[in-house]
Amino acid sequence: MKAMIMLCDYAQVHGGKLYATGAAISMVPPVDRKPPHAISLYAAIIVTVPWQSHDQLHKVTVSLVDEQGAKVRIAQPLAGAQTDPDDEGSLVARFVAGRSPIMQAGDETLLAVAVPLSVTVPRLGAYQAIVQVDDTELAAARFRVIQPQAIGLSSGR
User: Fold this and answer.
1) Which domain CATH number covers 78?
2) Residue 29 in contact with residue 146, Cβ under 8 Å?
3) Residues 119-135, mean pLDDT to the nearest whole number
4) pTM of the model
């Protein structure tokens, strides 16, 4: 499997297609000047499912970590759900990519995912959004949370 991730102002999936606006973000000004800092962005993700991985259950995990590797919570478990401790705070989904009758041997399926990252981070600095499939890291996007004046924005956003 392969995966790609891009940070953007907004993303959504409609009809299996990924739509991203304001893409290629690497610097994020927070809403609040004092910690903790509220940020708002999206992770636009494409997972490529190869022919031999169709019709099998897979797990995709999206996590946010700081520069020391500490996880920043982006999701809450559903009430009553049992959660693997390694997945706590991450967005976890399970999927099966079925084979369409019109697919030919060797065809791949593209799975589009849009994940809102409207969270509070504890401090300014570097963070990474990480995509794992079946517990293997396949993609990461690094960004820095910086004060608004550092990139010429007015206070507040």
Assistant:
1) 2.60.40.2550
2) yes
3) 97
4) 0.90
